[in-house]
Design a protein that fits this description.
The structure is a single chain. The protein has 961 residues and is mainly β. The protein folds into two domains: 492 residues, Beta Barrel (Maltoporin, Chain A), CATH 2.40.170; 187 residues, no CATH class. It has 13 helices and 47 strands. The chain has a 22-stranded antiparallel β-barrel. β23 and β24 form a beta hairpin. The protein starts with 9 loop residues before the first helix and ends with a strand.
């Protein structure tokens, strides 16, 4: 649906007023109100007719806020909770550089994102739209519908709709630039240009934008890097380097005597049951990101009654060096075929130069030295090949991962009006979007690491003599580590001759890499008009039409990643290897299957709007969608009423049903591996998330009851909303699976071997001898399911008051608040075991589960405008939360961080209109330099509800020609 008429001038002011948002301070009151199509309806009408809870954020409002980025703008909306934007590495796999919007905290995949009323394709490898692809220089306003809209837009519009609408009245050239000075980094800057041409029967808009973010290391924020005592979950792992190994008590015994690398105390630690390693210091709070956007739009009259519209978008973002741990702890180990010891594990022979250096330096006791020298050492998962000393293959510090996304979008359509039948309008359009991603995450190849530990590594290795004829040794011990590259602690027992060469590092590493593609083709046809049915207040307005949607998703893996090519742990050195457990050749990540999936959807819909009286208007909409196959079809109705009780008070109500089909990637029998912290294991593990062919669509009932109050210069809205979900599509919680088997933590009594837990236990792969022990947890299998029912409800309140003629200027005050009454999730059962009781998650942070659900979220501002000057003070509030892991071993001995304090920030922004059509904006964000509340997470704060930037300064300038 293309907007047949667009808000500008008086209509924009009127709609803002009706919806209870701040209107431009220098706008003038006018009587004429243009008819528009408001998000959530296909019927054009005056803004006063709006019966749905829609927020409108115009370009003027965004400028007064200091021109926030798309992520910051969406994150600040009280009805939005849980937005990607910073620290994405620990929020969603392969998403760094991306953004999303998550209305009502129901999940970003349940918020439909539109551009000029047309759908956007999902981000490759995800199930939500990447909002960082929106061409910000072209956007004139954002409309946020905080109500289910399946009857209007179909699947995905469960929690609501965000519609980005382009500018329509720019004439001439506009050039803008901005810079944010962020302590600890080189800042962030953006450049954009927009050109508009307005003719008698046509107009053109062309924009281009570039945004640069620079690295903000974790070490630049004291709150983000904590001691082990303060935050054991703060990027600490018991599987580090210096690592833990197994030795033999004598030549005839098995490898079962623990030996911790004696370099632990010098360059790592603390030393508990293993050597603790803090990998978080290698990471960034913000990565270096490059964002590019080019957009073009043309509108012209073909005839007096027919108009043509076309738009083209290209956007990309590149994260060339995402920082991560120098290496990961192995989740995959070589077979006995290449260890030479007759058992699985990484075998380090006594002749390994790194081990010999430890022995020669006297760092092992005599018994250990004798055993290690004669028999070597063995290890499985209780270590990582590279740690405190950094990874020299990537410059001596963090490992570098690559994330590149780009998208092309074309939309074109015609609209007009037939003269017969009282004048029937029509709107036809086709939209195509093609999004691609290239992901490369360097990971160690199991077989090549084992060969290098034996002195047979290197791409030029000839023969079978260790360390000779181009064959290289890999040293896994502290003897080859000069210092801790994060805190500078020097290793007194460093032996430079045993340091790993870049050549051997290059040999053992491979790219866990793949290409992703997401395509969308949508064809829309909408008719609208009026019927000669009139109760005295106006005719019945109607709209009806049809839509065809085709979605396609692809994944193409490189040979090392492809399970059909490299299925086994030894595949990197034995391409013909066969195996039962096809975990692939990488030490951490699991093998993936290629896929090429598509889905077609046909829909028909109708909408009617009837002014029953001068004060009562009703709207009814219904939509039918057919997915075919196992998903089938659905019919979703919606009804809305608006009653203007008095001149100053109106009431609105809407109710409907929503429907969301399972995406193709969630029904395909293939897996994606994510890195997540496992409390029961005391470290990170591989969670293999599998698709489920038996998934059914999720359904929900929505309700909104509201009031609009308007008296003079005071306007306010109050809405009650609720969502009742049946069978919402979610992935099973891997954490719940582990907690059910190990309810008392790593060392307490567990449920291993109990018949009732057998099926659940089979979801866990155990290392070493395969026994069910917390220390043996290797990887966890979970899948998408129709999960437990969810009911959530709450209140939205917004108010705006203008005080005129104050010292020759105007004061403006605004408030926007969301209060969540409930977020109740029914009892959860996995493999017949109750893994979570019915829980209300309001005011809680449910790590790896239902996310962050603050009870209160809101903002308030006070603004003064005089002549060309405007200054605004804004206070933003995110309520405190309780960590739901409070009863688990996470907080067993340390309650620090169980409550995550509220995040309150104050922003000061200033705008002035200068001569020569120049606008200057300046802002101080987080004036009082408020740190986010401490959370027992990797970065010691919750990235979904807060940000790590602290106080920073932003300046922007716009010049029109």
């Amino acid at each position: 649906m293309l907007h047949s008429k667009y808000l500008a001038g008086a209509s924009s002011l009127a709609l803002l007023a009706v919806l209870g948002l701040a209107a431009p301070a220098n706008a003038q009151d006018v009587a004429d109100v243009e008819e528009v199509v408001v998000t959530g309806s296909f019927i054009a009408g005056t803004p006063e007719d709006a019966a749905l809870p829609v927020n409108v954020i115009g370009a003027d409002e965004m400028q007064k806020q200091g021109s926030p980025s798309t992520v910051d703008l969406l994150k600040a909306i009280p009805a939005v909770s849980g937005v990607l934007g910073e620290a994405n590495q620990y929020a969603a796999a392969q998403s760094t550089g991306s953004g999303n919007v998550n209305l009502r905290g129901l999940g970003a995949h349940r918020t439909l994102v539109l551009m000029n009323g047309r759908r956007m394709a999902i981000s490759p490898g995800a199930i939500y739209v990447d909002t960082n692809m929106i061409p910000t220089a072209a956007i004139g306003r954002v409309e946020v519908l905080k109500d289910g809209a399946a009857a209007t837009y179909g699947s995905d519009a469960v929690g609501g709709v965000v519609n980005f609408i382009t500018r329509r009245n720019l004439s001439g050239l506009e050039v803008s630039g901005n810079y944010s000075a962020i302590p600890g980094s080189d800042g962030e800057y953006g450049l954009s240009a927009a050109y508009g041409w307005q003719g008698d029967n046509a107009d053109i808009l062309l924009t281009a934008g570039y945004r640069k973010r620079t690295e903000l290391p974790v070490t630049e924020r004291d709150f983000a890097i904590r001691s082990f005592a303060e935050n054991p979950q703060g990027g600490w792992s018991g599987f580090g380097n210096p690592g833990t190994y197994l030795s033999k008590a004598n030549a005839s015994s098995a490898f079962n005597t623990g030996l911790i690398d004696p370099g632990c105390a010098a360059i790592s630690g603390p030393l508990t049951t293993s050597c603790q390693f803090q990998f978080i210091g290698f990471n960034n709070l913000i990565e270096e990101e490059d964002h590019y956007q080019i957009y073009g739009e043309i509108n012209f009259d073909l005839t007096e009654s027919t108009k043509f519209h076309a738009e083209v978008l290209y956007a990309a973002h590149d994260v060339a060096n995402e920082h991560s741990s120098p290496s990961y702890p192995p989740n995959n180990i070589p077979t006995s075929a290449i260890t030479t010891q007759g058992q699985s594990g990484f075998y380090i022979p006594g002749a390994n130069p790194g081990l010999q250096a430890l022995i020669a330096a006297g760092q092992l006791n005599p018994a250990q030295a004798a055993s290690a020298g004669a028999n070597g050492l063995l290890t499985t998962i209780a270590w990582r090949p590279i740690g405190a000393g950094g990874n020299d293959l990537f410059g001596g510090g963090a490992k570098h991962d690559q994330r590149y996304f780009d998208t092309y979008r074309v939309s074109a359509g015609l609209k007009g009006k037939f003269e017969f039948g009282g004048g029937i309008g029509w709107d036809a359009a086709v939209t195509y979007m093609d999004s691609n991603a290239e992901i490369a995450t360097p990971d160690i190849l199991v077989g090549k690491l084992q060969m290098a530990l034996r002195g047979l590594g290197g791409n030029n290795c000839q023969g079978t003599t260790p360390g000779q004829n181009g064959c290289l040794w890999f040293n896994p011990f502290s003897s080859g580590v000069k210092q801790n590259v994060i805190d500078g602690r020097v290793n007194p027992n460093y032996n430079a001759a045993t340091a790993n060469s870049r050549e051997v590092l290059d040999y053992i590493y491979g790219d866990y890499g793949y290409k992703l593609r997401s395509q969308m083709l949508t064809a829309d046809l909408v008719f609208n008009g009026q019927l000669p049915i009139d109760f005295g207040a106006g005719q019945l307005a109607w709209a009806a039409g049809a839509q065809y949607r085709w979605n396609g998703v692809e994944r193409q893996n490189n040979d090392n990643t492809n399970i059909a090519v490299s299925p086994c742990a030894d595949s990197s050195v034995n391409p013909g290897a066969t195996c039962v457990a096809q975990n692939g050749p990488f030490s951490f990540f699991g093998a993936l299957a290629d896929y090429d999936l598509d889905q077609s959807v046909g829909a028909a819909f109708a909408e009617f709007q009837m002014p029953f009286t001068d004060t009562l208007t009703g709207t009814f909409a219904i939509r039918y969608e057919d997915y075919g196959g196992a998903i089938g079809s659905t019919t979703n109705p919606k009804v809305a009423l608006k009653w203007q009780a008095t001149d100053w008070l109106a009431f609105r109500a809407s109710a409907g049903s929503t429907f969301r089909a399972p995406p193709q990637t969630q029904t395909a029998n293939t897996a994606t591996t994510n890195l997540s912290y496992a409390t029961a294991a005391g470290g990170y593990r591989a969670f293999d998330l599998w698709g489920n062919p038996d998934l059914e669509p999720e359904k929900a009932q929505t309700l909104n009851l509201g009031a609009i109050f308007e008296a003079g210069d005071f306007r306010a809205t109050l809405d009650y909303w609720s969502f009742d979900f049946e069978g919402p599509i979610n992935n099973e919680s891997g954490a719940q699976i582990l907690n059910a088997i190990f309810p008392n933590g790593p060392t307490g009594k567990n449920n291993c071997g109990l018949a009732a837990f057998a099926a659940l236990q089979s979801r866990i792969t155990f290392a070493d001898d395969g026994s069910c022990k917390a220390g043996n947890i290797n990887r966890i299998r979970h899948q998408y399911v129709n999960g437990p029912d969810i009911k959530t409800s709450g209140l939205d309140f917004s108010a705006n008051y203008k005080l005129r003629d104050v010292f020759s200027g105007d004061m403006n005050f605004g408030l926007d608040v969301t209060y969540v009454l409930e977020y109740v999730v029914a009892q959860t059962t996995i493999e017949g075991v109750v893994t979570a009781k019915e829980t209300d998650y309001v005011g809680k942070m449910d790590y790896l589960g239902y996310g962050s659900q603050p009870q209160w979220k809101g903002s308030a501002f006070a603004e003064y405008s005089r002549g060309e000057h405007n200054v605004r003070w804004t206070v933003r509030y995110v309520d405190d939360m309780i960590d739901t892991r409070g009863d688990s071993s996470t907080f067993l001995t340390n309650q620090n961080g169980r409550k995550i304090d509220a995040f309150v920030t104050n922003d000061l922004s200033y705008r002035v209109f200068l001569p020569w059509e120049t606008t200057l904006t300046a802002a101080v964000i987080n004036v009082f330099d408020q740190d986010p509340g401490f959370a027992r997470l990797d970065l010691s704060y919750d990235p979904f509800t807060a940000n790590p930037l602290g106080r920073y300064y932003k300046v922007g300038i716009t010049k029109k020609f």
